[in-house]
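Known limitations

Structure tokens in this collection are predictions and should be treated as such. Users comparing against experimental data should check residue numbering before alignment. To illustrate the layout, the record for DUF5662 family protein is reproduced below. The input appears on top and the generated tokens appear beneath it.
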Amino acid sequence: MKTLQHLQTINHHKYLVMKECFKVGLYRQGLLHDLSKYSPTEFLVGCRYYQGNRSPNNAEREATGYSKAWLHHKGRNKHHYEYWIDYSVDPGEGIIGLKMPLQYVVEMFMDRIAASKTYQGDAYRDSHPLEYYEKGAGRLGKMIHPDTAGLLHELLKMLAEEGEEKTFRYIKRVLLKQKKY
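Generated tokens:
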């Protein structure tokens, strides 16, 4: 088990998200981000499947067919679109992604930046979070609300094209002042 390495990785990731959230005024979310990663259900799996260059949840999923740690994590953290999946009020639609509150979309955006920085290290570029998102976006279907997906994609694209400083300034001075999207 790679306990120390996993602890360092989650601490580093959590620190980056906290720093980013603070820059846009989301202090509470910055402090509380991903606390469930320290629970035994998530932490022990992370230690067992730690590789250093990707989420241990992927390795657990490959080894067992599912990730108990991920199921635990996404059900407790509102910055994951998977938290917001429910049955539609229209019985014909089945299970759909609900529109996420704005502050959680911003935290999700920050989470994706921090994950890319954590796993890419010195090779990180502002385009990495967008590239990663676009690789999997086609598979999301009805699991993420179209408005949520649109805003996330817009922010990731702005980051890739205009950089972190300008994107964070837009989030703080314009987006979060609106309260809705």
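For this record: The chain has one domain: 3-178. The longest strand covers residues 85-87. Please report discrepancies through the issue tracker.
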